[in-house]
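Exercise: predict the structure of this protein bound to FE2/S2 (inorganic) cluster.
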Amino acid sequence: MPKRLINLTVNGEAYEVAVEPWWSLLYTVREELGLTGSKEGCGTGDCGACSMLVDGRLVTSCIMLAVEADGCQVTTIEGLATDGNLHPVQQAFVEKGAVQCGYCIPGMVMAAYDLLRRNPNPTLEEVRLGLAGNLCRCTGYAKIYEAVLAAAERMRGD
Amino acid sequence: MIPAPFDYVQARSLEEAISLLQRHGEEAKLLAGGHSLIPMMKLRLVRPSLLVDIGGLEELRYIREEGEEVAIGALALHSDVARSPLLREKAPLLAQAASVIGDVQVRNRGTIGGSLAHADPAADYPAAVLASEATLVAQGPVGRRAIPAREYFLGPFTTALEPEEVLVEVRVPALAPGTGAAYLKFPHPASGFAVVGCAALVTVRGGEVTGARVAFTGVAGSPFRDDGVEGAVVGRPAEAEAMAEAAALAAQAVDYPLSDVFASGRYRVHLAKVFARRALAEAVAAAAS
Ligand SMILES: Cc1cc2nc3c(=O)[nH]c(=O)nc-3n(C[C@H](O)[C@H](O)[C@H](O)COP(=O)(O)OP(=O)(O)OC[C@H]3O[C@@H](n4cnc5c(N)ncnc54)[C@H](O)[C@@H]3O)c2cc1C
Ligand code: FES
Ligand code: FES
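Solution:
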C-alpha cells in the first residue's frame, strides 16, 4: 500500500507528510515532524497526555488518524510559547510547582489552555471538569488546579 | 501503540460509503469519531482491513427541528448535542446524556451515530434514546428504514443495524407540555463510562404523574426500559415518597446484571434504585417548572 500525502499546518508552519493510514496524528507529529512535546501515555484515549488542538478543538491525538487530520490546523504544546516566553499557563505551572515527573504536563497544559479560551473565569469545579480527560499519576492534581486558576487570573489581568 | 495495517478510504458521500460496505462486507468498518473503533483496533479486538471514513460527511452533522421532533444527524458530536439550545429545550435527555460522556476530548470527537452503532452496554445515549422513545434511521443499499429505540438494542455491542447499513439520524419527539426529564449517572471514576445511568421522563397533571418512562444503562447486557418502575409511578402523586417507592422496584426484571471487578451485579442493582429515585425526583421538579 502506498503512503498517503497529507497537508497539515502545525503551530503555524505548513507541512506535507507521507503517512501510512494506520499512523496516529500523535505518532506522525512526534516521529515525522520531530515535535516530541506531546506524549503517549495510554494510546487508547484515556489519559490525555497526547492532547492537541485540531481546528480549534481539544483532541486526543493518539486515537485520531493522521489521514483524518489532512487539511487541519494543529496546535501542539510547542506552539504555546511566543518569542521564547512561556505562555501564562506554562508559567503558572512552573511557579506553582505543578509539575513532578512531567509526563502528563504537555497534555494538561493544552487542556488548561483550551479551557481558559472557552471560559476565562472558571470555578475550581469547572477546572476539574475541563481537565477531566487528563490523568496525572504524580501530583494529586491540587497544584495543577491552583496553577490553572492562577493563570486564569493573570490572563484576565486582575 | 499502533493498530494492524489497514486500507483507508474517505467517503465522499453516504451512497459511496454504503456501496463500499456492500463491496467489502465484513472486512470493512465505518470510521466516525474513532473513539471506540481505534482503541479496539489497537487492542486487536477488531481487525478490519478497510476503514471507510464518514467523518467528513458534513451533511450528516446537524441538529434541527422537524415538526414535533428534533432530528439529530449521526455525525453530530457529543459536544454539539450537549450544547444545543434546541435539544436543551425540546429533548433535554439527549443533551444531558451527551454532556456527561467521558471528558472534553471524547466529546469533541465522538459522534452520536458512532456511540449508538457501537452499543456499549455502559454508554450514556442508549438510556436517553429509550426513555425519549426516539427513532433510529438507518440507510442501506435498498433505502431508509426507521427503527424504534425499543427494537434497536439487541445485546452487548449488538444492534438491529445490518452490516451494510449506516445509522444516519436519530429522531427525538419533543417534550410534551407538563413533562420533565433527567439523566443521571454514576460514572466509573477512571473511564467515565456509566456504572449505572438512569433516564427518566415524567408527565405531571394536577399534581399526579400521568406518564413515566424510565430507562437504564450499565445495569444489564443491554440498556432497557423498566416497566416495573414505570407502572408503579403512574397514577401516584408527584411527590418524593411515591417516587422512592417506585424506584425501589428498579431492575427487578434483570436476571443477570453486569458484574465486574469494579461493581458487582448486586451493587449495580442497588445503584439502579438510587439513581431511579434521584432521576424521577429531578424529572418531576423539571415538569413543574
Ligand atoms: C476515554 C474514553 C471515555 C469514554 N467515556 C464514555 C462515556 O462516559 N460514555 C459513553 O457513552 N461513551 C464513552 N466513550 C465512548 C465514546 O462515546 C465514543 O465516541 C462512541 O462510543 C463512539 O463514537 P465514534 O463516533 O467515536 O465512533 P467510532 O469509534 O468511529 O465507531 C464505533 C463503531 O460504530 C460504527 N459506526 C460509526 N458510525 C456509524 C454509523 N453512522 N452507522 C453505522 N455504524 C457506525 C463503527 O464502524 C464502529 O464499529 C468513551 C471513549 C473514550 C475513548
Ligand atoms: S496517549 Fe492519548 S489519551 Fe493517552
Ligand atoms: S507529573 Fe507525573 S504524571 Fe503528572
